[in-house]
Amino acid sequence: MMKFYGYKKCGTCRKAEKYLNESGISYDFIDITEQAPTKTELKKAMNMYGLKKLFNTSGVQYRELKIKDLLPTLSDNEAIDLLTANGRLVKRPMVFDGDKVSVAFKEDDFKSIWG
User: Fold this and answer.
1) Are residues 79 and 71 in contact, defined by beta-carbon separation less than 8 angstroms?
2) What CATH number is associated with residue 76?
3) pTM, to two decimals
């Protein structure tokens, strides 16, 4: 089953959910603020999108924790640990089906990945 890591109050997440629902694609919704993606999932996303793309750079936590300044000093594993410890730092929505992954929502990307 597809996993959809999102936040119900996030407009971008609502758009992504609407796309999946209208396309008849079923998924399990996981509140990213309560449960972050796993290290395995984040590493897969990192391999496809790069590490920086995984961070919610517009989020309050990103700014408060000064992640922009911290990130260059972290190894990939340390950055992944940071993301798994705080789902509010993760760019959303993040969608996984075991083989494929998408980060953020752009309708054209969703169409090409999730058909």
Assistant:
1) yes
2) 3.40.30.10
3) 0.94
